[in-house]
Amino acid sequence: AQSVTQLGSHVSVSEGALVLLRCNYSSSVPPYLFWYVQYPNQGLQLLLKYTTGATLVKGINGFEAEFKKSETSFHLTKPSAHMSDAAEYFCAVSDASGNNRKLIWGLGTSLAVNP
Amino acid sequence: DAGVIQSPRHEVTEMGQEVTLRCKPISGHDYLFWYRQTMMRGLELLIYFNNNVPIDDSGMPEDRFSAKMPNASFSTLKIQPSEPRDSAVYFCASRSGHEQFFGPGTRLTVL
Q: How many CB atoms lie within 10 A of CB B6?
């Protein structure tokens, strides 16, 4: 069975500081990995995804994540936080074999950006 | 494309009433997902469809919940009778390739 753990339900950073949101997964098959962002009172939207190929993945709004198989991690980073980055961030994993179309979701990390 | 469309955006009802939530997926997407989001339980998958056929409804909390997808452009999630613990934001998402596209959600309040 697949699972996702997001370390830290709340993260607070200062504007301009590094953003690091942690995600670890477990999967018995090669995973596809995703980060979604949810702004207040909105639905989720895709930030970035890893399927195959390069393990460092770049997404929208300056975010990137690195797939580390040995660490079963897919941490999300951004070099310099902006006030507009304040949102809820969700990590998710799916089955790369294609047999299971569901996404398994983490519980989310709420990011606060302080001026 | 207008994206995934959900209606209503807000619903306030009284316990015991029937509630119907509606979703129009993005044209051409062959998977449709219904989620429920609460502070206590986070994001929960309720049911998903492939080509209008329900594939996995193991997340549907109980028999009071039902979902249908009569055609590729429309799906409903019905709660009958509704209870206060059903209060949540309900999201519909449709899928293209590996990405799920979410609607804006329906905020349901059951008094």
A: 22
- In angstroms, the CA A115 to CA B17 distance is 46
Residue of B nearest to A91 (CA): B43
* Count of beta carbons in the 10 Å neighbourhood of residue B42: 17
pLDDT, tens digit (0-9, with 9 covering 90-100), for A39-90: 998 999 999 999 888 999 999 999 999 999 999 999 999 999 999 999 999 9
CB contact under 8 A, B42 and A108: yes
Indicate whether B61 pLDDT > 90.
no
- The one-letter code for the residue type at A113 is V
**Token pair in block for residue A95:** 């089955």
Q: Which of A42, A45, A90 lies nearest to residue B43, judging by beta carbons? A: A90
* CA separation for the pair B105, B35 (Å, rounded): 9
